[in-house]
Design brief:
alpha/beta; Aspartate Aminotransferase, domain 2; 2 domains; three-stranded antiparallel β-sheet; 13 helices; binds pyridoxal-5'-phosphate
């Protein structure tokens, strides 16, 4: 295991406190300074290494899986997973507590797959008991779709509970682990058919493709099932197994960057070390922001190591766009909030960042509030009331 060297961005670009694209290492960026032929043996070897590293990454027990990369942003591989692995006559239950659960449901609707949504609102987690009850009531549901870390609020959903309830009811589980894979450990033996993630999240590559880890026996049965020519995980997999090539033009530079990112992930100490660095980032950020008077949407138990949501200060001198611009001038790109109930903003803590960078974020926030004449970062009473209601519900 090596200590991660955090290098300030070289060309004066700001730190990206966003959940992908994110700040990458210089070596990851430098890996792209090379043109590769997609059919060439060098690139085929890179694709093979990428797939082997992805299968090995979660640790023992992953041999039953195969890795299939897919061109496009993360949503493309979500759509490919849903369309390839949920048969036309099947029925899905989507566990939604934010934008990405809603997007999965929208994708299913668009491709004409029967689906229902267990909608928990902006951030409450779907729990094992209510899932079990829903599955017991509806025998037609064959597949459960879960979001591992719901990046719109930053909540880490209880995946082990969800997988347990799904398996106990004899249904299949598909996971959008986009913003968690590589930083949140999967319990060994967790029962699921497939998960998807993308190059520009916790592995710290650049945007350009996503990937699925799929149980090989499940994928073998999915020939011809996909709704789409291009977004067909089975066809992509079959071509890679046959010729070592991607079906259509691969994002060669993004693949080269991703291989470097995977090597850095391994050198850092794998999932546990990556997760520990991100958790330390979160802890430094949350402690510092709370000391300034900011309030997190979620209690500590539900905070992910990926991104944290803060309520806007109620002080009338606070305007988010001005706060954003001033933080950018100090070298930090923030992320707007996505809640319907209360005004909020988000700070991502993934990417080539450490706790020292997070303390600099807090210092910049303190100075910025001072410049804006914001006396207190405390949120509005309605936001706190909403938070209290949520905590009561969560405690049940
Ligand atoms: C980033 C992300 C996606 C994919 O988003 P794209 O913008 O298509 O890359 C899907 N689900 C979750 C939970 C995400 O965080």
């Amino acid at each position: 295991m090596t200590d991660v060297v955090i290098e300030p961005p070289r060309s004066g670009e700001p730190w990206l406190l966003t959940p992908g694209p994110l700040t990458t290492s210089h070596a990851v960026k430098a890996a792209m300074l090379r043109d590769l032929g997609s059919w060439d043996a060098d690139f085929r070897a890179m694709t093979a290494e990428l797939r082997a590293r992805l299968v090995a990454l979660p640790g023992p027990g992953s041999e039953a899986f195969t890795a299939v990369p897919m061109q496009g942003s993360g949503s493309f591989v979500v759509e490919a997973m849903l369309g390839t692995l949920i048969p036309r006559k099947a029925k899905a239950l989507v566990l939604a507590n934010g934008a990405y659960g809603q997007r999965a449901a929208a994708a299913l609707a668009r491709m004409g797959r029967a689906a229902e949504v267990l909608d928990k609102g902006d951030y409450l987690p779907p729990r094992g008991a209510e899932l079990a009850e829903r599955l017991a009531r509806d025998a037609a549901i064959t597949h459960v779709v879960a979001i591992h870390c719901e990046t719109s609020s930053g909540i880490l959903n209880p995946l082990a509970e969800i997988a347990g309830a799904t398996a106990a009811a004899g249904r299949r589980l598909l996971v959008d682990s986009m913003s968690a894979f590589g930083a949140v450990e999967l319990p060994p033996g967790l029962p699921f058919d497939a998960l998807v993630s993308s190059a520009n999240k916790c592995i710290e590559g650049v945007p350009g493709f996503g990937f699925a880890l799929v149980r090989r026996d499940v994928l073998e049965q999915a020939a011809g099932a996909a709704h789409s020519l291009a977004l067909d995980l089975h066809a992509q997999w079959a071509e890679m197994e046959r010729s070592g090539q991607w079906r259509y033009t691969p994002p060669t530079h993004a693949v080269a960057a991703f291989l470097q990112a995977l090597r850095e992930h391994e050198a850092e100490g794998g999932v546990a070390a990556r997760g520990a660095r991100y958790a330390a980032n979160r802890d430094a950020l949350v402690a510092g922001m709370r000391a300034l008077g900011f309030e997190t949407l979620l209690d500590d138990r539900w905070l992910s190591p990926v991104i944290t949501t803060f309520f806007h200060p109620a002080d009338p001198a606070f305007r988010f766009t001005e706060f954003y611009d001033r933080m950018k001038a100090r070298g930090f790109i923030l992320y707007p909030g996505k809640l319907t109930v209360a005004d909020s903003f988000r700070v991502g803590h993934i990417g080539r960042l450490d706790a020292g960078v997070m303390r600099a974020v807090v210092e910049a926030a303190a100075a910025t509030l001072g410049e804006m004449g914001v006396a207190s970062a405390a949120p509005a009473p309605q936001a706190l009331a909403e938070k209290r209601r949520a905590q009561e519900e969560l405690a049940r």
